[in-house]
Write a structure and sequence with these properties.
This protein is of the alpha/beta class. About 40% of the residues lie in helices and about 20% in strands. The protein contains 12 helices and 15 strands. The protein is elongated and about 90 Å long.
């Protein structure tokens, strides 16, 4: 897809390091709104550690970070943001969860880079920086076009993420033959997949064909019947790829049900959403084919090693994103000679960070994701 960019910036930390510090420059103040206590404190602390890694890497005294505990509460998140806002902070990383953006529109000349990928109501000063459904469907669409796959169905769970997936499909212009919805209870999944794949009809086709041959004068009928008796179903499917918009155990339940209904990943493309290189997929699908979009794996692995070396802990997934966001803010502020940032996120901009390449335009982010395949117990990069 060709696109005209008024401003194209290629961002990397190597480039950032080439920007020489200047003590006389205005301070770049970044507020962090994180759950540093309570149920999600480890998530918040992981983001904070990641931000500190980025600060140390950039190594410029004009860059200052002010972490605040938002207690994973919309009310306390706003109070924390207002306190930092009153002290002169105009750009924030956080909150992590979409539920906590409440009332932030009141601070209308500040920008909040939430790590959420769930976009409920678009607000002018909120940028959703998570790997959203649109970015994932955009990458899947690229793969379908590359492989010339034309008969794709999409399976969507009846969950809180349902509307996001629907918007992602619509916005990405991906061609979907039909969308099917399912309940996530395991027995309901199996029943629904049987309906979608017309399993009972295809199974009956085998019995009908055996009976027809038995009553025929076909000289090779015994051999043909022997072959049929080894089959579970007979008849072509009306799709050649399936997008399973799910994760973890429910994803595995859906794929198991597909295989049970004689839908083979050797013949049908099994595609899913960003799985963040979940190692359990290698155990479940190691000898099968499963495709998914995701961030740059090499960079993800390198970051994880660096994080572990510094903190003796592995990072959370969103920590990886927050590392890039620090560099992004720093780069935009330096190149625009301003930290009054409300307008600098309106420009058409392409960034290259550790997560990969992503575009910003009109305060929207689209991640240009890589694409991977589970093959021979490894994650193989397709593009």
């Amino acid at each position: 897809m060709k696109k005209l960019f008024n401003f194209i910036f290629y961002f990397s930390f190597l480039f950032l390091l080439s920007i020489k510090p200047s003590i006389s420059e205005e301070k770049i103040k970044i507020g962090l709104l994180l759950p540093l206590s309570g149920q999600n404190s480890e998530l918040g602390k992981s983001v904070l550690r990641s931000v500190n890694l980025a600060i140390n890497k950039i190594d410029d005294p004009i860059l200052e970070v002010y972490p605040k505990n938002n207690y994973d509460s919309p009310e306390k998140n706003y109070l924390a943001a207002k306190e930092l806002y009153d002290s002169g902070v105009r750009i924030f990383i956080g909150p992590i969860f979409e539920k906590n953006i409440k009332n932030l529109e009141k601070l209308n000349d500040a920008i909040f880079l939430t790590l959420s990928n769930k976009i409920s109501k678009k607000k002018n000063n909120i940028i959703y920086s998570g790997v959203n459904a649109y970015s994932q469907m955009y990458a899947i669409n690229k793969f379908l076009k590359k492989e010339k796959i034309e008969k794709t169905i999409c399976l969507i769970p009846k969950s809180d993420f349902k509307a996001e997936i629907e918007k992602g499909i619509q916005k990405s212009n991906i061609k979907i033959k039909k969308v099917f919805y399912y309940d996530t209870e395991p027995t309901e999944i199996t029943k629904r997949i049987e309906e979608i794949t017309k399993y009972s009809v295809r199974k009956q086709n085998v019995l009908d064909e055996i009976k027809r041959l038995e009553n025929s004068e076909d000289p090779n009928k015994e051999k043909k019947i022997e072959i049929l008796e080894k089959k579970d179903t007979l008849g072509k499917l009306n799709f050649n790829s399936v997008i399973i918009s799910d994760f973890d155990e429910t994803l595995k339940s859906v794929t198991t049900s597909l295989i049970y209904t004689d839908v083979s990943p050797e013949e049908i493309y099994f595609i899913t959403l960003n799985q963040w290189f979940d190692e359990s997929l290698l155990n479940e699908f190691g000898s099968q084919n499963l495709y998914f979009p995701s961030v740059n794996k090499k960079n993800y692995d390198d970051f994880s090693k660096t994080f572990f070396k510094n903190f003796n802990l592995y990072p959370t997934k969103i920590s990886f994103l927050s590392y890039d966001l620090v560099g992004l803010v720093y780069y935009l502020a330096k190149t625009n000679d301003s930290v009054l940032v409300n307008k600098i996120f309106d420009k058409q901009t392409v960034f290259k960070g550790k997560t990969g390449i992503f575009e910003i335009e009109n305060k929207n982010i689209k991640h240009l994701l890589n694409f991977y395949k589970v093959e021979n117990n490894k994650f193989k990069e397709i593009f």
